[in-house]
Predict the structure of Beta-hexosaminidase.
Amino acid sequence: LARRCYKQWLWFMVLFMSFSVIYVDAVWPMPQMISSSMARYTLNPREFIFQYSSGSSAQPGCSLLDSAFERYFPLIFTDYRHDEWFRFPFTVVVHVERAECEGYPDADSSESYKLSVCSGQAALRAETVWGALRGLESFSQLVYQDDFGEYFVNETKIEDFPRFQFRGILLDTSRHYLPLHAILKTLDAMSYNKFNVFHWHIVDDPSFPYQSSTFPDLSSKGAFHPSTHVYTQIDVKRVIAHARLRGIRVLAEFDSPGHTQSWGKGQPGLLTPCYKGTVPSGTFGPVNPANSSSYQFMTRLFKEVTSVFPDSYVHLGGDEVDFTCWKSNPDVRGFMLKMGFGTDYTKLESYYMENMVNITKGLNKTAIVWQDVFDYHEKIPVDTVLHIWKGSPGQIQQELSSITLAGYRVILAAPWYINHIDYGQDWEKYYTIQPLNFTGTEQQKKLVIGGEVCMWGEYVDATNLSPRLWPRASAAGERLWSDERMTSSVIDAFPRLVDFRCRLLRRGIQAEPLFVGHCRHEYQGI
Amino acid sequence: LARRCYKQWLWFMVLFMSFSVIYVDAVWPMPQMISSSMARYTLNPREFIFQYSSGSSAQPGCSLLDSAFERYFPLIFTDYRHDEWFRFPFTVVVHVERAECEGYPDADSSESYKLSVCSGQAALRAETVWGALRGLESFSQLVYQDDFGEYFVNETKIEDFPRFQFRGILLDTSRHYLPLHAILKTLDAMSYNKFNVFHWHIVDDPSFPYQSSTFPDLSSKGAFHPSTHVYTQIDVKRVIAHARLRGIRVLAEFDSPGHTQSWGKGQPGLLTPCYKGTVPSGTFGPVNPANSSSYQFMTRLFKEVTSVFPDSYVHLGGDEVDFTCWKSNPDVRGFMLKMGFGTDYTKLESYYMENMVNITKGLNKTAIVWQDVFDYHEKIPVDTVLHIWKGSPGQIQQELSSITLAGYRVILAAPWYINHIDYGQDWEKYYTIQPLNFTGTEQQKKLVIGGEVCMWGEYVDATNLSPRLWPRASAAGERLWSDERMTSSVIDAFPRLVDFRCRLLRRGIQAEPLFVGHCRHEYQGI
């Protein structure tokens, strides 16, 4: 059936400038391969169903895809209120090779899929349920409405897979508390953009909102408020479940030894007491690396964390450790002497981080750490992932070269610090990043496993998160998913992103405008 | 009664650093004079009423204050669902000298008020209903809740009046269409900040959303969409009514002769046809100043506009006129010769604007124009108001000197182009503007009638309007209302503005955070 259809089609490699002539909207991010014809089918919400193919490994009862079908119906037919179905529906037949319907997406999950809209139906084939989710998203973006409200989908063929395995968004829930709905809404928008990792920078200096069952004082004393500004175990489970249904991993970060001021409130003795001369000043520095109790505490905390968060990776932080307080403390100085570190505090930091990575390894998790850990030449297992967050474009290229030369995998976040804002179309800056533009072998380039958009929380909370994130993060979303050669022009991307942003609005995502203009349906929120 | 109360009090001129010790929140913008004691009253929503004093000119039936009482009850008791009242209520007794309950606020409306909270009641006295509105806002901000949800108000005495008569916010509904709810919500927030002029930059090059009864083609052809992206006469009336109830004037701007591309679609012949050599190029420039039909059209349009908008001022625009197209057009060149303008096109622009100001005068309205009209030395009536929008700080001071020396009144907008954004706490920049810091006599300084926050729409629509506007515009709000000597320190203002921003959130205004921290009630919108 599909073969017959292909013959009828006028196949052409899509010329992107002419693309918008055929579709009102195209798929964002750009699929690896997409072609389409002028032929189109009218879709009637009352004659439209999703269906498992007879040979599919996933069948009715596959919670993940059953709920995806339910979700995508109103995403496709935005105006439509559910009604009974008629005969001869337009069918989206879904075929999955391996049905991990109750599992979690992980680092090696395939997200590839093939989609064919042809002969009055759509066929979606994927190795995994995660790939099927990506294909459903693409299908939903192929559907468009004309001026009379009728729905259409053009004959289309897509073969698609992500360029990078790790496509993350970081939210910071310590500098400002983000209510649960803001996190869930972000996960929705991430799935529309085919992001697949929610990096939850859950705690930091200002507050500790994670409600630990092992150490309840951490949030009861370290959160902005012990009951209204915390994430309970139920909240965390809800985030993980919501993410799972959208094929999104939840990567928890418990950053130490720096960035831990809020930890100290609920865990006395954890932080280093700073000294002024020979007396404690009353202030505290990073986690005390000289006390074995620090590592005992961390072992118990991470035992909990790694059981609560199912992902096989955990983020240990390790950035921006200020040595001033360590240097002031006589016990820490004594420990330095005993360990033979001399006065090189980077050795102390290394020692701390090595211990942390080993704790993680003992819990069968792989560690991700900020680049500082590499910069200080710590001895860390080679499967540790380094996370680049700082430097000029030149320094970033240098860092990419050095880290991959040492054989470590790397995630690139530095160019996508999206909390920073400028007046005008700064999405272009995020779009034109070339993650593999550094000196290195093919083997080195393969060690760049992806990138991440970081929304640090100094000036961001639920009031401005969405318009600051979308559609600016969508630019990074396409860079991380699509073929760079097919998506190198901001001029070509602009009208597609304008359309996609209107689609986000239509789905209730408060995405800000790119420039002068309008959407058929403007934002109707508060 | 009031006198007795005063004696009991420990009066003190408020030291602003210690202010937050007494109140959780203070009044924003800072009243001209405020003092308070540690004594406080518990407010019970079921025992609280607003009431007219027996001698007040306004009495029950005064629509404006009746509806303000209804509005302020839930603003004060945010958690409370209405119930029957108990005996012995806490009473806010309102006394108004002149009851213009059905009128509109205008340029010479007094907004001063006196508020005394004492002896278990509050007494609010104002010359006008507009002053009473400002006093109700201040009273509502004096009320705070403790950790158990109980409401309190401290004994307080306020004498207050605005520093500047004109405290405006410009919204641009041409570059992006703003749905009605976004405008109404902005008016709500303006009243919380004691802004009193909504400058509605309603049309411009990209679109003409104003649905004119005289020239319906202007919007049916010039709007982004003829039915979903227009402001009907009913919409406009609703905006004006909503503004009136909050003591806010609606200043309509129909900018010409430039910024009129969208006008040309529905009014053929209005714009100047541009020429390439000896033939029309197919593009159009500013309004054609050589055709008498242009002035006939404008007379009819402004006759409608000035009857729809009750304010005694109207904004004629007059900025950024590009002469290229005029120069290319042989008819315009012929007209120049005939009028003896030589090749000085500023004379042609002057001629056009003089005609426009005279049309306005004939309709009994006073014109406001952008500074360009002054810069080109046009002969305009001395009651015209100039609107400064451009230049470096030095140039702005020079412009203030020149315009006021020539005897014109002036509104300062240039320092408050709030659509421009920077990373970090840029509210400080808006807060520290000194509008009267220019060389000039006392008489000249008096000609500075106020300032305006401009939210141009290139990158702004309903998705990001609120968080971009608030609380950054609040900084300008205090500068324009309060005594500069009492509000010169950003360090003192910061905690007050942080509290005020939480109050805005609590009232449903999507105001973004100033820095790391939290509000007791976080934003619960989408």
Summary: Chain B touches chain A through 46 residues (CB under 8 Å). Chain B has a mean pLDDT of 91. Chain B is about 35% helix and 20% strand. The longest strand of chain B covers residues 33-43.
